[in-house]
Design brief:
The complex is a heterodimer.
Chain A: H1 10-13, H2 16-36, H3 44-54, H4 62-94, H5 102-116, H6 120-131, H7 135-159, H8 164-171, H9 176-210, H10 219-227, H11 231-259
Chain B: H1 8-30, H2 41-53, H3 68-97, H4 107-121, H5 124-135, H6 139-164, H7 168-175, H8 180-214, H9 223-231, H10 235-263
Helix pairs in contact in B: 2-10, 3-4, 3-6, 3-8, 4-6, 5-6, 6-8, 7-8, 8-10, 9-10
Main location (chain B): other
Family (chain B): Belongs to the binding-protein-dependent transport system permease family.
Protein name (chain B): PhnE_2 protein
Chain lengths: 260, 264
């Protein structure tokens, strides 16, 4: 009698796919190891020295940190707000149910993808070159960064709305501005606020290091204390960042839960 | 018919919220010197865009190891190795931080979560500089920085994956006489593996971006040539490096997205 069991193919029998994947990963690992020179010695005493210095923070430095840390929060707030304002029209133009023209939508989405490919610190380096050292460079970098992120979150939110109200308003003769204001905005407003807060959290975290490249805020003090080998003060800066990030995350999480 | 009377707080709540938001942003804008922009900002912006559209193609490949392709491959190597190491290191932290018991007092999971938060907030650039002190400037320091910093996020995502799995199979194995280790290797790990892989790939996408930055402090990769080109105002070179980073990030995001679609 002929067997009814399905025959296993050669590649399935010997797990060719899985084996090849493992071999490939190992090859890439070795290649990366070669490329980055990971065999170099690790000098533990240097590393321990830094760590030991960091565990004895210079508490008197706290007073010097307060103003820059507030400036960091201001930068994050302004950057997120500006980025959001620019992002709203772009997110409408990139949403499938608002922008019916596929070519225009594709162009806008391509542009947004390009913007999103740039990391925050890279933007900071560019803006320091453009507007000069100071918090304006940080605001510029955060504006572009949050623009890229928010526009994607927003257009995905817009695409999930119920089409009924849009159709009803269009049928009643509303123009596209009226449709957006009365059919789209009320449906996505809470989600928008929630995403705004989420981006603000990320921007607060990002803005604390932007100053390292001269873009304002507390990051400047990171680079100063590190280059003077005052790791006891670096520890204070890091602790301050930790406190601010935890507070902002906590507030933002509570607000987002209230919005949901 | 009797209307429900609104309390004063309910009636004024929108106004109070609006006022608070306006005050917060007024304070935020007051701290930013909006006018303090270098007068030549427009010229430099134009120069950068000119550089983007007329990039220095000769920099793409020169063969002496100081070109764009080598730097990009080095960036990818840092990200790959760093993510791989941190994915392995994250697993014990994930099990430490996962909240598998109900109740208010969970010292083990709280300890794990606190450790992961501290690691996550510790700036990657500072880590990179600490490792540069230990191993000298170069890609190795970048690998170490990425592998330690990523634990913060991967450990958190992994621990959430562990919290969310069905614990039935594990209990069944233990009830049938298996040891706790049997439960871990035969029930828990197979259940969380796809999610672990998914998060690792996602973190790899992020690691590529941060590896592109770490070079700015001397930890290898594309960041160093970029910051040199910016400081010496070689805009065509800035243009080609930016193009290179954009293409690399886009391609990696696409590939990793395809792989993750297959996994889920």
């Amino acid at each position: 009698m002929e067997s009814l069991l399905p025959e296993r193919q050669f590649s399935q029998k010997w797990h060719i796919k899985g084996l090849l994947t493992v071999v490939l990963v190992i090859l890439i690992l070795f290649g990366s190891g070669q490329m980055t020179g990971v065999s170099t010695d690790f000098s533990w005493d240097q590393f321990w020295q830094i760590l030991i210095k960091m565990t004895q923070p210079d508490w008197s430095y706290v007073s010097a940190i307060v103003t820059p840390i507030l400036e960091t929060i201001q930068m994050a707030l302004v950057g997120t707000l500006l980025g959001t304002i620019i992002a709203v029209p772009f997110s409408l133009l990139a949403a499938r149910n608002i922008m019916k023209n596929a070519v225009a939508r594709g162009v806008i989405r391509f542009f947004l993808n390009l913007v999103r490919a740039l990391p925050d610190l890279l933007l900071a380096a560019l803006f320091v070159a453009i507007v000069g050292i100071g918090p304006m460079a940080g605001v510029g970098a955060l504006t572009v960064f949050s623009f890229g992120m928010i526009s994607k979150l927003f257009y995905e939110a817009i695409e999930t709305i119920d089409d009924g109200p849009i159709e009803a308003l269009t049928a009643a003769g509303a123009n596209s501005i009226q449709t957006i204001v009365f059919a789209v905005v009320p449906q996505v407003f809470n989600q928008f606020l929630s995403y705004f807060l989420y981006t603000l959290e990320i921007n607060v975290r990002a803005s604390t290091v932007l100053g390292y490249l001269g873009a304002g805020g507390v990051g400047l003090y990171l680079s100063q204390t590190l280059s003077l080998f005052r790791y006891d003060r670096t520890a204070i800066v890091i602790l301050a960042i930790l406190v601010v990030v935890i507070i902002v995350d906590g507030i933002s999480n509570r607000l987002r839960e209230a919005l949901a | 018919m009797q209307l429900v009377k609104q309390s004063p707080w309910q009636r004024f709540r929108p106004w109070v919220i609006t006022a608070v938001v306006v005050l917060i942003f007024a304070w935020a804008f007051s701290g930013i010197p909006l006018a303090s922009v270098k007068p030549q900002a427009l010229i430099i912006t134009k120069a950068i865009f000119h550089g983007l559209f007329h990039p220095d193609w000769s920099y793409v490949y020169t063969g002496d190891g100081e070109d764009l392709v080598t730097a990009l491959v080095e960036t990818l190597a840092i990200a790959f190795l760093g993510t791989f190491i941190s994915a392995i290191l994250s697993v014990p932290f994930a099990f430490l931080a996962a909240r598998t018991k109900k109740g208010f007092f969970t010292p083990r999971s709280t300890l794990g979560k606190v450790i992961l938060t501290i690691v996550r907030v510790f700036p990657e650039i500072v880590l990179a500089i600490m490792f540069i002190k230990a191993v000298g400037p170069g890609a190795y320091a970048g690998v170490l920085a990425v592998s330690i910093h990523s634990i913060g996020m991967l450990g958190k995502l992994f621990s959430e994956a562990v919290e969310n799995i069905d614990r039935g199979p594990n209990e069944a194995i233990v009830a049938a006489g298996g040891s706790a280790l049997d439960g871990l290797t035969l029930a828990t790990l197979p259940a969380v593996m796809p999610e672990f892989m998914n998060y690792t790939l996602y973190r790899f996408e992020i690691a590529v971006r941060s590896a592109a930055i770490l070079g700015m402090v001397g930890a290898g990769g594309i960041g160093a040539p970029l910051i040199f080109a910016l400081q010496t105002r070689q805009w065509p070179k800035v243009g080609i490096i930016l193009l290179g980073i954009i293409i690399m990030v886009t391609v990696i995001d696409f590939l990793s997205g395809q792989l993750r679609k297959k996994l889920v």
